[in-house]
């Protein structure tokens, strides 16, 4: 409508910024795969940049110039800006706008990338479909949405270079900030450049963007660009471009001094100088902006003031409804404002915005308080009368903001509650919390008839129990507090949530509502755990006392289910069984399917740990089938963590790996990043048991890469520490142990964390010759107890302690306290369950080490240990047992037959140690063979070696080479083996070096020539 109006004050010349533009172009080249290293051979790596600078310094112009250049290089550019309405931001606004732009440009690619997840991604882009309603306290909802968004962008950018530019981050809502941080941390592939700009002068000490900037600064993958002001030469070039003539030097000096090199103010002063003959019109640059407004016709000034209060961008129809002008008058006023370069048409052509936000802020600040309220009322009334005036995803939050700033509590409270429901549906829990706190603020000043007409918030499930009057069904203040407590927990504002629950429980002291009080105590239990204040047991106990004797209900079932889960993790036993069984029963009675499945999962785990393995696993596999049929992501995710963990706990590591492979594929499709991290950690544990240490290390790294939550990070560090300890790198093991302790904390000492950490600390102390510290560590661990079901952690701990004592046998310094230590180990072993072959083997091993620690025992004892491990799939443990048997056979009086058998045992143990990189074991084997003068290498009739092993390839490198030989790219290898493209690239480089070839083709040819992978060999399983 106004597209032909001339805009004169924007310089046609792009001035300066060569270095900054160079950084952006370098990022584009890297993302597009233009680098020289192999890391870029499969399409480059995602790039992230932050562009900061004061208001008016030229951030938008820099991004526009870069975007235009990127488009000329066939990149797809998607721009999105943070939207400000009054003092409020819209949830995910820049991402919604950018995804909408991508959808317009790449409709087929975006649809293909989103296939199967449209309902979830519709929370960001409503055009994709109708978002699915889930539980009101969906723990994984936000993480799932973030992960799916990251995978969507990776898929869209798999074959096309995509530039995602997010402007005005200083206005960003919390959900937008959290999503941006997640993307920057987790994007692993794709030709993608993410740029975000912000005003550095607006980022005061308490600005919510400051913590995000500090976090991103710590990431090596993020580059910062700080735009400075122009120097005099650049200002002169800018003025010349604006005026289309060489400026007078005195004029340049005056404008440069007045603007101090700020590009926007240079423009304003240059135009003012051109129109009025000099640049010194006012004493303040802010007044200069208002002077330009005041030169407009009165109607145009009025329209500018209305636009200023409507938000960053105001739609034409909404503006027309709020302005209440005749159409011709409105058009003329807009033409004047656009012609004066005060307003611009919005990029989509459907509305208007100020050319620069500084002008809008100056106009808005100049409004009188009553004038501001009146304009907000007009917007609210117009939007209420016709909801189609704004995009559907903006309707509720904008109406809530307009009514709130109109200071009409009776209208604002219902609108704010509607916006809170909308925020919950979009997993924008930070905005949901802010809106609910605003609703609580409005509650007392809202007329009673209006409050009485409010109904419980429109959720798919009426849970928790409403505190409303059953006769009227009206909303109660406690309902708002319940909503806010959950929102605070889900968005990470847990201290605020704790304060809300404390206030709620104080109010409930005056009411006889034990069910509601129990619900709030459950929330406090979760919050106390999440804030590392306690293990939450005291709060759960209080909740359990409140529901005792009450009829079955969802709250009652949930309390029992949580008590059972807590007990399973801390003190498994009869009480945990009882709570789990009653939770299942109560959940069935009230139809709480999610609670029932979770309680049955816990019950199955308790059966396994108590020794009734078949019953427990059958229960868990039934839950697996039902959860998958029902599409219950939360239960499915938890099951794929718990089930393989229990399988590993009974020595069925291969079965655990298969379940984990299925689970990893599932969680990546569902976007369950936290669950995926736990699965990677569990996979690392099972692969370690199976002797696939290179893959175990990759899995441990993956568990730390996909998420930043403390518990999975701690579990990943624990796995790295075990690998380092077995490999003989005590310093690295110590560093990883320290990291694991920091992540896992000391507030909730679950045996599944406490005992592995004690095992590591004891092993490191023993390796460094600190036997007294090793004994102290064991004593502390045993004092805390080895509860039922902890044999998977208890036996390795006792074995490490017995081995340390045996290794120190004969050392005078070890004698004081030896008898007490051995008795302590022996007593703990008698009380520890050995109900499956793997722990029965460990029981024999501990007994043999205790005999060795007393200078007793012999080949028969160690033969039993070796025999027990030969039927298990535990190559490292078998190698260690063979080394011990060889040592006992080489004792004086063993004979020649014993020496021959010892030689073969040491040869087998040494081969495993070398293959795994278990340096301490390899050195012990070599030392023992040296002392006994045994030759371990075969000289006659050499055995036929595996060609791959003779080339020095690890297990994982064989998998990678097999796929290289099949013609797979690095990206395809990464997807099939569930590793990053960069890791695949490193493996390929190592393989080329070991094979002595120059390229992938030669490597494939050599693999085929050596028949490394015969056609009849089974297909390579994914290592995920």
TrEMBL record:
The keyword ATP-binding applies. One of its GO terms (molecular function) is DNA binding. InterPro entries: AAA_16, P-loop_NTPase, Sig_transdc_resp-reg_C-effctor, TPR-like_helical_dom_sf, Tscrpt_reg_LuxR_C, WH-like_DNA-bd_sf. Keywords: ATP-binding, Nucleotide-binding. GO terms for biological process: regulation of DNA-templated transcription. SUPFAM superfamilies: C-terminal effector domain of the bipartite response regulators, P-loop containing nucleoside triphosphate hydrolases, TPR-like. It comes from the Bacteria. Pfam families: AAA_16, GerE. One of its GO terms (cellular component) is cytoplasm. Residues 946-1011 form the HTH luxR-type domain. The keyword ATP-binding applies. This is HTH luxR-type domain-containing protein. It comes from Streptomyces colonosanans.
């Amino acid at each position: 409508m106004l597209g032909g109006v001339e805009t004169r004050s924007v310089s046609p010349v792009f001035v300066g910024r060569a270095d900054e533009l160079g950084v952006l172009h370098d990022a584009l080249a890297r993302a597009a795969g233009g680098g020289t290293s192999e890391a870029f051979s499969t399409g480059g790596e995602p790039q992230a940049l932050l562009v900061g600078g004061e208001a008016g310094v030229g951030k938008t112009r820099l991004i526009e110039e870069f975007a235009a250049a990127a488009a000329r290089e066939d990149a797809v550019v998607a721009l999105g800006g943070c939207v400000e309405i009054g003092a409020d931001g819209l949830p995910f606004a820049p991402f919604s706008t950018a995804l909408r732009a991508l959808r317009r440009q790449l409709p087929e690619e975006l649809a293909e990338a989103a296939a199967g997840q449209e309902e979830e991604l519709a929370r960001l882009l409503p055009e994709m479909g109708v978002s699915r309603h889930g539980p009101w306290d969906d723990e994984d909802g936000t993480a799932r949405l973030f992960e799916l968004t990251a995978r969507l962008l990776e898929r869209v950018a798999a074959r096309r270079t995509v530039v995602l530019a997010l402007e005005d981050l200083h206005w960003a809502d919390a959900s937008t900030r959290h999503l941006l941080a997640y993307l920057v941390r987790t994007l692993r592939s794709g030709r993608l450049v993410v740029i975000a700009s912000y005003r550095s002068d607006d980022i005061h000490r308490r600005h919510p963007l400051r913590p995000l900037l500090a976090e991103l600064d710590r990431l090596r993958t993020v580059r910062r660009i700080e735009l400075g002001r122009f120097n005099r030469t650049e200002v002169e070039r800018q003025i010349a471009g604006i005026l289309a003539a060489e400026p007078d030097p005195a004029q340049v000096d005056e404008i440069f001094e007045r603007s101090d090199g700020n590009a926007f103010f240079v423009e304003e002063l240059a135009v003012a100088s051109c129109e009025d003959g000099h640049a010194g019109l006012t004493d303040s640059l802010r007044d200069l902006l208002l002077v330009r407004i005041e030169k407009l016709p009165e109607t145009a000034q009025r329209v500018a003031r209305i636009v200023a209060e409507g938000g960053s961008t105001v739609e034409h129809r909404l503006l027309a409804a709020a302005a209440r002008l005749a159409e011709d008058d409105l058009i003329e006023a807009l033409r004047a404002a656009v012609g004066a370069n005060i307003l611009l048409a919005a990029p989509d052509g459907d509305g208007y915005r100020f050319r620069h936000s500084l002008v809008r802020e100056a106009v808005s600040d100049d409004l009188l308080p009553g004038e501001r309220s009146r304009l907000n009322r007009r917007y609210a009334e117009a939007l209420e009368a016709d909801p189609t005036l704004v995009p559907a995803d903006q309707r509720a939050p904008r109406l809530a903001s307009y009514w709130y700033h109109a200071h009409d509590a009776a209208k604002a409270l219902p609108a704010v509650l509607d916006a809170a429901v909308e925020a919950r549906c979009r997993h924008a829990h930070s905005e949901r919390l802010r809106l609910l706190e605003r609703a609580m603020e409005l509650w007392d000043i809202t007329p009673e008839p209006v409050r009485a007409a409010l109904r419980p918030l429109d959720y798919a499930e009426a849970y928790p129990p409403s505190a409303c009057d059953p006769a009227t069904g009206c909303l109660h203040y406690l309902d708002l507090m319940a909503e806010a407590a959950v929102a605070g927990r889900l968005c990470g504002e847990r201290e605020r949530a704790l304060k809300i629950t404390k206030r709620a429980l104080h109010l409930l002291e005056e009411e006889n509502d034990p069910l509601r009080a129990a619900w709030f105590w459950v929330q406090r239990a979760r919050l106390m755990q999440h804030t590392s204040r306690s293990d939450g047991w005291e709060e759960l106990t209080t909740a359990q006392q409140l529901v005792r004797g009450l009829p079955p209900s969802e709250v009652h079932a949930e309390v029992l289910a949580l008590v059972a889960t807590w007990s399973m993790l801390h003190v498994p036993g009869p009480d945990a069984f009882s709570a789990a069984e009653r939770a299942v029963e109560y959940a069935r009675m009230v139809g709480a399917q999610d609670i029932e499945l979770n309680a049955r999962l816990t019950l199955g785990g308790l059966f396994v740990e108590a020794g009734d393995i078949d019953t427990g696993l059958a229960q868990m596999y039934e839950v697996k089938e039902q959860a998958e049929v029902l599409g219950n992501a939360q239960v499915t995710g938890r099951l794929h963590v718990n089930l393989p963990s229990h399988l590993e706990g009974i020595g069925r590591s291969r079965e655990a790996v298969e379940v984990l492979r299925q689970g990893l594929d599932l969680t990546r499709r569902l976007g369950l990043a936290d669950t995926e991290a736990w699965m990677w950690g569990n996979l690392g544990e099972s692969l370690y048991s199976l002797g696939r240490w290179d893959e175990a290390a990759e899995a441990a790294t993956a568990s730390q890469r996909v998420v930043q939550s403390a518990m999975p990070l701690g579990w990943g560090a624990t796995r790295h520490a075990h690998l380092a300890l077995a490999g003989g790198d005590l310093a690295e093991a110590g560093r990883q142990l320290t990291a694991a302790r920091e992540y896992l904390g000391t507030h909730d000492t679950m045996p599944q964390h406490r005992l592995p950490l004690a095992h590591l600390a004891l092993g490191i102390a023993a390796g460094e010759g600190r036997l007294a510290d090793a004994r102290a560590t064991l004593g502390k661990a045993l004092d805390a107890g080895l509860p039922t079901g902890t044999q998977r952690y208890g036996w390795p701990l006792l074995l490490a302690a017995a081995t340390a004592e045996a290794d120190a046998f004969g050392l005078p310094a070890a004698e004081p306290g030896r008898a007490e230590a051995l008795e302590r180990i022996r007593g703990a072993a008698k009380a520890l369950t050995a109900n499956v072959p793997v722990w029965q083997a460990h029981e024999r091993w501990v007994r043999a080490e205790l005999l060795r620690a007393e200078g007793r025992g012999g080949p028969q004892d160690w033969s039993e240990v070796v025999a027990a491990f030969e039927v298990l799939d535990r190559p490292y443990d078998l190698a260690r047992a063979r080394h011990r048997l060889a040592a006992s056979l080489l004792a004086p009086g063993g004979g020649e037959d014993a020496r021959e058998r010892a030689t073969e045992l040491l040869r087998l143990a040494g081969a495993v140690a070398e293959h795994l990189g278990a340096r301490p074991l390899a050195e012990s084997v070599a030392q023992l063979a040296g002392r006994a003068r045994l030759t371990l290498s075969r000289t006659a009739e050499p055995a036929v070696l595996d060609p791959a092993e003779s080339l020095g390839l690890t297990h994982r490198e064989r998998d990678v080479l097999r796929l290289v030989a099949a013609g797979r790219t690095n990206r395809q290898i990464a997807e099939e083996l569930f590793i990053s493209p960069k890791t695949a690239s490193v493996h390929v480089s190592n393989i080329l070096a070991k094979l002595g070839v120059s390229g992938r083709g030669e490597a494939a040819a050599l693999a085929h020539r050596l028949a490394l992978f015969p056609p009849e060999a089974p297909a390579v399983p994914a290592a995920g």
